[in-house]
Amino acid sequence: MFHDALQQLLKPFSRQSGSKARRTPCASLLLSAGAVVLFVLPSLAARLQFDRSAIAGGELWRLFSGHWVHYSFDHFFWDVLAFGVLGLAAERRSCSRFLVCVAASTLAISLAVWFWLPGVTDYRGLSGVDSALFGLLFMETWSDADLAGERRQSAVAAVCFAVFVVKICFELATGTNLFVHSAGSGTIAVPLAHIAGAGVGFLVGRL
Prior knowledge:
The chain is mainly alpha-helical. The chain has twelve helices and two strands; from the N terminus they run ααααβααααβαααα. Helix 7 (73-93) crosses helix 8 (95-116). It is globular, with a radius of gyration of 17 Å.
């Protein structure tokens, strides 16, 4: 029942036919599983998180790995849930664009934090990558609707985009995350990560 409901929810974002529509989204499942494994092995988190001093010392893998570790269950749950849902939809449309979007957004977000938020010494979480996948799906869905002249599909995409903009504005105005309880999780909102991620997603979707 849950699977059927999820398929209906993602239908506007998952227009594929034939074998591609039935393909198991292995990459998104494996990446989600990786985040789960790292969460249940918290001793690895400090070695993988974005750490400014460690990166300056040459541990460049943290620019990528830091997105797959989290500070708390609340932080982990919402990030990985969004990644799983958005990743499933994006990969079913195009595995190559999904992988490019994930790889490019992890680097772009880390570099944005590095250069424009020098006060941020450590960073974790998939929320920026989630924003990238949202941007990718939005651009693909909007383009499909425009080519097909489907106003209903365009309206769905526009509403989703409006909700995303409201979320970013809320984070900028309050300094807190919309879904993650910052006081309980020990996290602070980093809207720049979400903006940078969405930008990458828009670009990949446009190309």
